[in-house]
Amino acid sequence: MGRLVRSWIVAAVCLCPTPALACAVCFDATDENRRAFLDTTIFLTVLPLVLIFGGGYWIYRQTTAPVPG
């Protein structure tokens, strides 16, 4: 019985969403800093997708290239 209760408590703690609070460093009143944070966020969001799809395209090109000879 104790193991079941502990399992339910762990599941409840892990599955209950909590609000994500941004740190004070990520926001600044100056427009330049705010724009820099936004640009960096966009870049770091898009970069993994570009690397994955670029790698997949490269592998596709390598496997479908005609063999010389």
Task: Give a description of the structure.
This protein has 69 residues and is mainly α. The chain has helices at residues 2-15, 31-64.
Task: Output the keywords.
single chain; 69 residues; mainly alpha; 70% helix; 0% strand
Brief overview:
It contains two helices and no strands.
Task: Give the overall average pLDDT.
Answer: 82
Q: N- to C-terminal separation?
A: 71 Å
Structural class comes to mainly alpha
Proportion of beta-strand residues = under 5%
Portion in helices: 55-70%
* Helix and strand pattern: HH
Give me the number of helical elements. Answer: 2
Q: How many β-strands, per DSSP?
A: 0
Radius of gyration: 23 Å
Low-pLDDT ranges:
none
How would you sum up the global shape?
flat
What's the story with the biggest beta sheet? none
Topology, please?
Blueprint: H1 2-15, H2 31-64
